[in-house]
Design brief:
Length: 105
Amino acid sequence: MKFQSEVIVHGVKESEGVVEGRAFSSTTFHCEVDLAENSAGRSIGRATRPFKLGDAKEFDKWAHLGASLPVKAMATFEMAAAAQDGTKMVLVDIRPIDKATAKAA
């Protein structure tokens, strides 16, 4: 199931290289999320969580926004099954909300 959500992007990290003969390439978006309460106690505030998307070239679409971070963005997530009746959110698309600052994709 896919859904859209407005997020705040605090950082974008490009990763590219070769480890033990295997090439890798990705871009990680660090998006703001609520801190969840759990059985160990209460919590307030927000934190960031990493979400990978595409390859390292995705970074180029965001590089010009570096001085503007954090920025609002519209993210598309896909909810998928995870282990032990859990769910996970996979980032499938993200774009800055202010179209004037967005670089053409």
